[in-house]
Design goal:
The chain has 235 residues and is an alpha+beta fold. Helices cover 15% and strands 37% of the residues. It has three domains: 25-111, no CATH class; 113-175, Type Iii Antifreeze Protein Isoform Hplc 12 (Alpha-Beta Complex), CATH 3.90.1210; 182-233, SH3 type barrels (Roll), CATH 2.30.30.760.
Length: 235
């Protein structure tokens, strides 16, 4: 082998070796997207959201001027906060190489709750059916006390006003017992459950007290609405 060929072969060897030392095989590139994904996964693990579908996590975008990061070791992830977290958590991602670096990622934590919404425009006086309703997840800080999470309790009730498609259906927008309706009257007496019928003299929704006229006796009673076309009275 000529001296020139040997020199060329050794030159290539040392060039490749120098690359290996400059960029170790373990080195990993951490893009902004990857750092955000790691931050969300870490916070999810801390609060167990992998088993809780009522929690929504998202990382706030990092500054576009931040370059991709390189680290030869596993990143050290940590946060000074502890669950239950507030709506925003700051996570620290730290590389402990010789040229150490730290990147902070903000994660938004939003607790979600099921809300009954209309799937079609409902007009005043329209009877609500199963096809009119669906469940959507909404942030809990937007959910009011009047919001409902069970569509079955509304089936058969009537809307008291126009309700737009996609909007939550509130108790004060419907009547489970409407004025003039024939209703079932239930009463408990000495362990027995008594049933009779009556006519509603006013509108009412779940839990409200309304006046009912007993069909048989003609007596006006105060009753509590406990479902669609159903009331309870105390004896």
């Amino acid at each position: 082998m000529s001296l020139l060929k040997k020199v060329r072969r050794y030159s290539v060897f040392y060039f490749v070796a120098s690359l290996c030392f400059a960029l170790p095989l373990q080195a990993k590139v951490f893009s902004k997207d990857l750092l955000q994904e790691m931050a969300v996964a870490y916070i999810a693990e801390q609060i167990g959201t992998l088993k809780n579908n009522n929690m929504q996590l998202s990382a706030l975008p990092l500054d576009s001027r931040i370059p991709d990061r390189i680290c030869n070791s596993e990143l050290e992830l940590s946060t000074s906060d502890e669950p239950p977290f507030n709506r925003q958590v700051t996570l620290q991602a730290k590389c402990n190489d010789v040229q150490t670096w730290t990147q902070y990622v903000h994660v938004r934590v939003v607790e979600m709750a099921p809300v009954v919404v209309a799937t079609a425009n409902l007009t005043r006086g329209e009877v609500i059916t199963k096809s009119h309703l669906s469940i959507e997840m909404k942030p809990t800080h937007f959910v009011r006390i009047q919001y409902l999470d069970d569509p079955t309790m509304l089936i058969g009730s009537r809307s008291k006003r126009n309700i737009r498609s996609g909007m939550p259906v509130l108790l004060n927008q419907i009547c489970m017992v409407c004025k003039g309706d024939s209703v079932n009257i239930y009463a408990n007496l000495r362990g027995l459950r008594i049933k009779t019928t009556g006519i509603a003299l006013e509108d009412g929704t779940l839990g409200e007290q309304i006046q009912i006229k007993n069909k048989k006796s003609g007596k006006v009673l105060n009753a509590r609405v406990d479902g669609v076309e159903s009331v309870q009275v105390n004896i």
